[in-house]
Automatic annotation (TrEMBL):
Protein name, per record: DUF1203 domain-containing protein
Length: 169
């Protein structure tokens, strides 16, 4: 099975909103104050603490609009936060639920039918690795099992090819 990496929303996407830009529908993000758990930031992949301001906005984690490019509401710290970097570790935000939808997408950014499954949180790494071991799966999304909201992406970690096998003596 391949190694996997959990990937948060790209910083470039977050910076658009932090600098006053619009969401996937061309609207300004709404500002609200977190009342505690239940507002996962998709950039740092941590819950937004009670009393902190956040953005809620439409997000499309796909390169372009197309029939399978799901767009939905997500949260982001209003104040810039550091992007999640421990890619090999289950992100803290995924501890908020007992299960999530895990679904594979092809290189054409379309859902690969038959891959979506409500998956217990602890089983996400193994199921994602199994999906990413298939030649028809380019990446995986983790989504809320209750509301289908995008949480994060999982990619296969490519192992660099040995440039020169003779270099190992």
């Amino acid at each position: 099975m391949p190694s996997i990496a959990f990937a948060a929303m790209p910083t470039s996407d977050a910076e658009v909103l932090w600098s006053g830009g619009a969401d996937a529908y061309g609207h300004q993000p709404e500002t609200m104050v977190s009342d505690g758990p239940g507002h996962p930031c998709r950039h740092c992949l941590r819950n937004i603490n009670a009393g902190e301001e956040l953005f809620v906005f439409a997000y499309r984690p796909f390169p372009e609009p197309q029939p399978y490019a799901e767009t939905g509401p997500i949260f982001l710290h209003q104040t810039p936060c550091k992007r999640y970097a421990a890619e090999e570790v289950l992100p803290p935000v995924l501890a908020s639920s007992r299960d999530f939808i895990v679904r594979g997408y092809g290189k054409n950014d379309r859902i690969v039918y038959g891959t979506g499954a409500v998956t217990p949180t602890g089983d996400i790494p193994a199921y994602a690795a199994a999906l990413l071991g298939r030649p028809d799966i380019a990446y995986v999304h983790v989504r809320s099992a209750r509301n289908n909201c995008y949480q994060c992406r999982i990619d296969k970690v490519e192992t660099p090819a040995l440039a020169d096998a003779g270099a190992f003596i």
